[in-house]
Amino acid sequence: MASVPATEFARIAAQSEADNTTDDPRFRAPLVTGNLDFSGITANVADLAERSTPPKAWYIALGISLSLLGLLGACIGYLMLTGVGVWGNNQPVGWGFGIVNFVFWVGIGHAGTLISAILYLFRQNWRTGINRMAEAMTIFAVVCAGLFPGIHVGRPWLAYWLFPIPNQMELWPQFRSPLLWDVFAVGTYATVSLLFWYVGLVPDIATFRDRSKTRIKQIVYGILALGWNGSSRHWHRYERAYLLLAALATPLVLSVHSVVSFDFAVSQIPGWHTTVFPPYFVAGAIYGGFAMVICLAVPARQLFGLKNIITLRHMDNMAKITLATSMMVGYAYLTEFFVAAYSGNPHEQFTFHNRVFGPYGWGWCVMTFCNVVSPQLLWSKKIRMNMLVLWIVGMLGNVGMWFERFEIIITSLTRDFLPSSWHAFWPTWVDICTLAGSFGLFMTLFLLFCRFLPVVAMAEVKTMLPAAHAHAHDLHGVDAHRTDYRPDEHLNPDTDAPRLKNR
Amino acid sequence: MSTDLKDIHDTHGHGGPAIDAGPRLTGLLGQFDDVSSVVSAAQKTRAAGYKVWDVHSPFPIHGIDAVIGIRPTILPWLVLCGGLTGLCTGLGLQWFCNAYDYPLLVSGKPFFSLPANIPVIFECTVLFSALTSVFGMFGLNRLPLLYNPLFKSARFRRVTDDRFFIWIDETDSQFDEHRTEDFLKSIGATAVERIED
């Protein structure tokens, strides 16, 4: 049994912050390094929440985020008191920053669901190190996304008209509109993401509850943990519910950005009216989301001492997915140009010519550089292992994906069919401050999450350790893959005969 | 005691709770230090004929369901019903709003036609299914249950960290304070604790 794989596995797992990116096919690389055992994982993850003071960088980041959040509040207040005229929106550019930001933030969320649901169905065990953080990112991104359509409707106090609520006017929403599909898609997505996140959190909050020293923490974590006690019967239903949620979230996440893309694709505006939009939007969303996960994970593993749980292998895998999806996005860009050229439709052709050489051509260059050119660096393993460069590529990805939505929305609207109706769009200071403020909202929520909730799915990471699996002989006579055992199947007929007779 | 175990409460057991108000023994808790030992102990517990018992662990142990004899949950069927309810709700909502209660003519299209209704139907199906799977799971697990005599044990706090436990309930027909304690020790428990309520 002391074969090369076993010793090699043990050697890597024992090193702190080891390079576990090996692709040796004889064994699976360890996903937890630094010789962490079960309690080591617990202590490592709980450390940030149990420290009396978090690192100085956390305070600085929270200070900046809270300032930006205040700015967001001020901008929204100003908008509500004055009207959407404070934004740069005009005729014909009715969808300015409000919708650019909405699509940007909704897209960010997709990586979280991809990691938590799709990689779960594909049995990608490395997801356990990062799924909690990515799911939190999803929820906070959807919060930011939901904000924008709400304040964009003109009279935000009437935003509830979006929902089918019985009213004295007997008016109902118009269910043929993709904008209403969006309400249902994003609403469902937010709810399911929150449920998925919370279900995953319950056993880990129970860990926090059991480690709490103060009365307040015991009560708060105790209520949130719902009395979780690790019963095998509970785990059985829990795992089944988790699998069902993953199976439900997978088509859901593909549908959400597809529905968002219908907002554009179902219209007749050149540059929007195209069938490639749903897959193109989904690929872009996953690319942008992974770029954001990388941007959050690099500082988090550094600052919170999580390098043995969010290992180099995790970062390497995320970089590879970023590279793959960036090329899908690049392919979609090419397809758009090809279809425009091939269609023979002069409006379509003009729109794409205008997108590159028109007044917003610089934005197209930023988008192409950030989304297609710079991720090519990730072909090199050296760069994937260099956290600073990886972080910069991730940051560029965020910038690029924001500009992609800017290009799609603004260039198509400023110059549509009739030159007499053309009009430029330039953001006002309120537009820019609201965008900056939404980052404040996102980061504030994320920083608070890091401080008060388990940032890593501890129970799931523990199952990745070899010690989490019983040796084969312990399961003698029991097929672990069967679930249809009768309760009396393993009774000993001699000693249990009287009991069996009584039944 | 976990109320969940009452599902398989053996009616041959001792009667109800003691009349006097003093602390009542609810069962015995055996601690195990690793997965292999708790799995083999669970096999022996089942073979010994205990009925009202459970394994507690910090994470789901692969294969433990078969060892204990946990029957598959009905949760997937509940979720199927939830999903179908969502499907009908989505379809009915759109028909009621735009075709029945306030017929809305859009570009001369039919008041009610399936293709335009698919996205909302899909979202409602997923939403209802997800709600059913989460609340169904917690409901079947009888959670939230904030009071549990097990939580009085300081030792049991490590069940969410790195320790494994076998719980044998006093309502089990084979339960005997001393014999069961010896049994837990004989199958490898590193510590046995009486849990009183």
Features:
heterodimer; A: 503 residues; mainly alpha; Formate dehydrogenase/DMSO reductase fold; disordered C terminus; B: 197 residues; alpha+beta; four-stranded antiparallel sheet; 42% helix; elongated
Describe it.
The complex is a heterodimer of chains A (503) and B (197). With 503 residues, chain A is mainly α. Chain A has a single domain (35-466), classed as Formate dehydrogenase/DMSO reductase fold (Up-down Bundle), CATH 1.20.1630.10. Chain A is 66% helix and 0% strand. Chain A is built from 17 helices and no strands. In chain A, helix 3 crosses helix 15 (429-452) and helix 4 (97-121) runs antiparallel to helix 5 (127-152). The model of chain A is unreliable at 476-503 (pLDDT under 50). By secondary structure, chain B is an alpha+beta fold. Chain B has 2 domains: 25-72 and 145-175 and 186-196, no CATH class; 75-140, no CATH class. Chain B has 5 helices and 4 strands, in the order βαβαααβαβ. The longest helix of chain B is centred in the middle third of the chain and has 27 residues, at 75-101. The model of chain B is unreliable at 6-16 (pLDDT under 50). The interface between A and B is large, with 88 and 82 residues.
Distance between the termini of chain B: 8 Å
Shape of chain A: globular
Strand order of the largest sheet of chain B: 2-3-1-4
Please report the total strand number of chain A as a whole number: 0
- The CATH C-level name of chain A is Mainly Alpha
User: Which pair has the most extensive contact?
Assistant: A-B, 88 and 82 residues
Q: Please report which band the strand proportion of chain A falls in: under 5%, 5-15%, 15-25%, 25-35%, 35-45% or over 45%.
A: under 5%
Q: Number of domains in the coordinates of chain A?
A: 1
Query: Uncertain regions of chain A: pLDDT < 50 for 5+ in a row?
Result: 476-503
Our count of helices of chain A gives 17
Categorize the overall geometry of chain B: elongated
